[in-house]
Amino acid sequence: MTDKASPPDPRGRVLVIAGSDSGGGAGIQADIKAITAMGGFAMTAVTAITVQDTTAVHSVWPVPVEAVTGQIAVTLSDLGADSIKTGMLGERALVEAIAETLDAGATGIPRVIDPVMVSSRGDRLLPESAIDTIRALLIPQAQLVTPNAWEAQILTGNPVETVDDQRRAAEQLLEAGARGALVKGAHVAGDVIVDVLQTPDGEWLFEGPRIATQSTHGTGCTLASSTAALIAQGRTVPDAAGAARDYLVEAISRSPGFGAGHGAVDHAWPLREARHPGG
């Protein structure tokens, strides 16, 4: 690897390692849209091709391990990166290979780990065999880990059903080595959604009213990738997470309503606002 992987000043480059979503609402597609909307430059290493729409993940076709690690290696060597965001990965062997490739070529680059195990609509996306590997190899290297309540429960082994549970889960993830943990609250009951962020510097609570909508597909991908884009431009983790959450809330409220199931959010709204301020 060349020194392009670790630039002296953040330039907004985000390497996303995740699966593709044929419906365009989640995965790599959502990541690219969100990073672009946040002013970043998205690069990708595709881990799987999913056959999915707004109603379900119908099938998953893994990309060979060598193809995934090859995408990561050449991108880091040529273009470099200012942050790395992981999403849906796959089997244990792939997680191990990704961790090894990042350890070799991405030292010092902040990593936002979205431990995609359960989608926003409840689809299970990660085999049991890979969970321990994510705990052991990815969480300790994370600048920020962003589980939803279901994923936090899987990672910690404890129920995550209240805000206090979210706090405890975040504490456990820091104890596991992460430098920041954002435990999201959309799957915790209540009219107000609270996302709990903890870092060694303190705790931040981001909260707002629950929006009555089915257009929540890809919200986890969108939040993590927009946060990674802002970190890649030099923002602190709390500042990036707060701004990314504001972006996501507005994107949910403007959802276009495409599809018969859980639709996508409106990733592009800041770009339209920039073209037509106040319009």
How is this structure best summarized?
With 279 residues, the chain is α/β, with parallel strands linked by helices. Helices cover 39% and strands 20% of the residues.
Keywords:
279 residues, alpha/beta, UDP-N-acetylmuramoyl-L-alanine:D-glutamate ligase, six-stranded mixed sheet, three-stranded antiparallel sheet, globular
How would you describe what is shown here?
The protein is built from 9 helices and 9 strands. Strands 3-2-1-4-5-6 form a 6-stranded mixed sheet. It is of the alpha/beta class and 279 residues long. It has one domain: 3-Layer(aba) Sandwich (UDP-N-acetylmuramoyl-L-alanine:D-glutamate ligase), CATH 3.40.1190. Strand 5 (111-113), helix 4 (128-138) and strand 6 (144-145) form a beta-alpha-beta unit.
| Strand portion | 15-25%
What is Rg?
17 Å
Mean pLDDT across the residues is 93
Q: What is the CATH architecture annotation? A: 3-Layer(aba) Sandwich
The CATH H-level homologous superfamily: Ribokinase
Number of domains: 1
Strand-helix topology:
Blueprint: E1 13-21, H1 27-37, E2 41-52, E3 57-62, H2 65-78, E4 83-86, H3 92-105, E5 111-113, H4 128-138, E6 144-145, H5 149-156, H6 163-175, E7 181-183, E8 192-199, E9 202-209, H7 219-231, H8 237-253, H9 269-275
Helix pairs in contact: 1-7, 2-3, 3-4, 5-6, 7-8
